[in-house]
Automatic annotation (TrEMBL):
Molecular function in Gene Ontology: FMN binding; oxidoreductase activity
SUPFAM superfamilies recorded: FMN-linked oxidoreductases (SSF51395)
Domain NADH:flavin oxidoreductase/NADH oxidase N-terminal as annotated: residue spans: 7-262
InterPro entries linked to this entry: Aldolase_TIM, OxRdtase_FMN_N, Oye-like
Record-linked CDD domains: OYE_like_5_FMN (cd04747)
Domain of life: Bacteria
Signal peptide start and end residues: none
Protein name: NADH:flavin oxidoreductase
Species for this entry: Thalassobius vesicularis
A Gene Ontology cellular-component term: cytosol
Region (Disordered): 115-134
Amino acid sequence: MSRTDTLFRPVDLGKLSLKNRIVMAPMTRTFSPGNIPNDLVVDYYRRRAEGGVGLIITEGTCIDHPAASGYPNVPSFYGEEALAGWKRVVDAVHAAGGKIAPQLWHVGGIRRPGVNPGGATPGHSPSGMARPGKVTGHAMTQQDIDDVVAGFAKAAADAKRIGFDAIELHGAHGYLIDQFFWEGTNQREDGYNGDLAARSRFALEIVRAVRAAVGPDFPIIFRFSQWKQQDYSARLCETPEALGAFLTPLAEAGVDIFHCSTRRFWEPEFEGSDLNLAGWARKLTGKPAITVGSVGLNADFLPDDGTADFREAQPASIDNLLERAERDEFDLVAVGRALIANPDWANQVQAGNFAHLAAYEKEMLHKLH
């Protein structure tokens, strides 16, 4: 047996059965003109499924709300034409032997007026802030909150209807759901603010609405992070006890799998233990967890000064990853830039062809291949 076999054994996560433990991480690439997934997008995901990935999580896809989109050419997840495009993606991935989940997304206060769809609509966030201390957009009313919750539920129901195998809710990286979690951007004076438990109310309403929309047996993945794109040093939880208190209500509301976003998967999350964030999430909730963060590469995807997007990196050893996988620290491994550079990364790793893996170069982000 090869040592890498631990990544390639079938895994049954209750509501989701996969042929291996390799996940394609969601990566925004703005390749959907008119916000519609086209032939190139279909081919992009098909190639990763043919390359051996067990589960694909798509790039962020915007729910049906005027302020959901923050970047041009990001695919929508509503409307007949966009959903037909996604149905073609689903069919292609399934034909290639893979499974797929859309990442459902609302950017919140990150949005700036002028991006379509949405036009002149300003960014929407808990307190009108995209980052602590500066109001730049619209502070959400109760009606806004209700509309966004309904938008997530509708998108999830549509995902199930057109054949996706699961959905992921984007609750990380300083976007809308995370802006409610983060004390720095949630300065409300109602029941959506207070301690972290109170600031989780918005997310819990979304999870419960999604669960009601898709029924008891459709998998819900929830992506969260300590860090924010606005502040890499930000932390929601300073102790394992705080993390457990944060994640347990989400699990009880209907989350099946936690996608634990870190910049470097090998870093311990808390002092006194080698467990990373996914390891702690799994231990504290009993739910399956996905680890992610510069897997297979020698540099994380963003420098500490935030001066570049998806910076270049060379292939790197996955020995540390394998050691953690062998002791079941996490259930699944999400791979990002390495899969952009190598659509067949999973097949190459399974075959032991590490010398054939290509480095990630920044221009790859701007080429659909």
